[in-house]
Design brief:
two-stranded antiparallel ribbon; elongated; 2 domains; mainly alpha; single chain; Fumarase C, Chain A, domain 2; Ribonucleotide Reductase Protein R1, domain 1
């Protein structure tokens, strides 16, 4: 595995993904594609049906002689031929004549990688469903939890934590939609031979490819060219966007769990050690792993773009690169999703500190509320000028904002002290934060329920 790991990785459930990405699964996927090819060719009378049936029966990884395969690797210097030779040996001389009939290495390897990646992709959806469920519950539970909204690293106007979570949900649902839409382009079957033009099989080759696609439950490529890689870049981009959504959550947790904020914290189990020298340390291990793996995942797309532009009908440099970066992207995404599921499920919200932080500016964050009152009477521009001067006076002199307001005659004529105090409370100016949080949680749960 080529993701970035730490001790936390060992405590997380990968739901069988790592097994799907090991070498044994790779060889089995090669056998599955060879078996589908043989069955299709048998049904279409390209090869004897009896031979096709025997090939399908023997297409189990347990039947491969890996010691012999390693010996052949040393002799031939090819990444796929040794596999074929030991599979031929497993099937016997007569049946072996019909293995890999009319196909080329990349037909099998790329189709097999798509087959395996599709299985991993479906596992990703189980994580995304759970993450979105966790976030929906969080949005509902914290719909009324008042906190400071922040723009440009400074306090803006109050929101609720449920609203913040609703924003995360909205973005993740867009990524979920992209992940669904890319399936028909990414997880495809190619059986066009050496350059994708069915040179050795002719018209029957198109029918064979169609049947292989049906057997593998993956659509066939319109033109099965080995030089087409844009769908692979698109898929890695989709993964990178999911990673970016989760990276954003992790960054927010990482930052706001700092003692000076103390608004949230990762779930903590007694006995977990944060430092070999500082006994008190409780580190955001889940968040930091998401951040690191996401940043590495972003880098894969640029390599894919460069390699996809290689000339001619096929290029092994591009084949090698995409074989590597797709696997790496899947590994990185696995680590990100495992951590994000636990993070969103176990996140602790400190409502008291959120409210304290929202009040830290003593009501000045609600300046817009007072401005909009005057905007209805004297116009937005003049209202902005009035409240701006009062807010800046409080900021520069250090005087309590409430006292600055109460000294101003225009303000005093408009509000009683009690009314003004109510207007300065952050809980009284959160807009539709709570409603939006509940609505998004409800929408999300409906979408999740409709997923396969």
């Amino acid at each position: 595995m080529r993701a970035l790991y730490d001790s936390k990785s060992k405590t997380l459930d990968d739901r069988g993904i790592k097994e799907l990405l090991d070498s044994r699964s790779k060889y089995q996927s090669w056998l599955d594609v060879e078996a589908a090819l043989a069955q299709a060719q048998g049904e279409l009378e390209v090869i004897p049906m009896k031979a096709a049936e025997e090939i399908v029966q023997q297409a189990e990884v347990e039947n491969l002689d890996f010691k012999k395969m390693d010996e052949i690797y040393q002799q031939v210097g090819h990444g796929f031929v040794p596999f074929l030779k030991v599979f031929v040996l497993a099937c016997g001389e007569e049946t072996g004549k019909y293995i890999h009939f009319g196909a080329t290495t990349q037909n099998i390897q790329q189709t097999a990688q798509n087959l395996n990646a599709k299985k991993v992709h479906r596992k990703f959806f189980t994580f995304l469903k759970d993450i979105l469920t966790n976030l929906s519950d969080l949005a509902e539970n914290e719909a009324d939890t008042v906190m400071a909204g922040r723009t440009h690293g400074k306090h803006a106007i109050p929101i609720t934590y449920g609203y913040k979570v609703a924003v995360w949900i909205s973005e993740l649902l867009m990524s979920l939609q992209r992940m669904q839409e890319v399936e028909k382009r990414m997880f495809t079957t190619m059986m066009g031979g050496a350059v994708g033009a069915f040179n050795s099989t002719g018209e029957i080759g198109i029918k064979v490819q169609k049947r292989v696609a049906e057997l593998l439950d993956m659509p066939e490529m319109d033109i099965p060219s080995r030089n087409i890689s844009s769908q692979k870049i698109e898929y890695i981009n989709c993964l990178a966007l999911v990673a970016n959504n989760l990276h954003k959550i992790a960054e927010e947790v990482f930052q706001t769990s700092i003692e000076e904020f103390a608004e949230v914290s990762e779930g903590f189990s007694k006995g977990t050690v944060g430092s070999s020298t500082m006994p008190h340390k409780i580190n955001p291990k889940l968040a930091k792993g998401i951040i690191a793996n996401a940043q590495k995942l972003y880098s894969l797309t640029s390599a894919g773009y460069a390699s996809s532009a290689r000339p001619f009908e096929a290029d092994s440099t591009s084949n090698m690169l995409f074989d590597g970066i797709i696997t790496e992207a899947l590994e990185l995404m696995t680590e990100i999703l495992m951590r994000a599921e636990e993070l969103t499920r176990t996140l602790t919200v400190n409502r008291k500190h959120m409210l304290q932080n929202a009040n830290i500016n003593q009501g000045i964050d609600n300046s817009e509320s007072i401005m909009m009152y005057f905007a209805k009477r004297i116009g937005k521009d003049k209202a902005h000028e009035l409240i701006y001067e009062l807010a800046i006076e409080a900021e520069t002199t250090g005087e309590n904002y409430r006292d600055v307001l109460l000294k101003n005659q225009v303000v005093r004529k408009s509000f009683t002290e009690e009314e003004l105090l109510e207007m300065l409370k952050p809980e009284n100016y959160t807009g539709l934060s709570a409603e939006l949080a509940h609505d998004m949680a409800k929408k999300c749960k409906k979408i999740i329920a409709e997923l396969p």
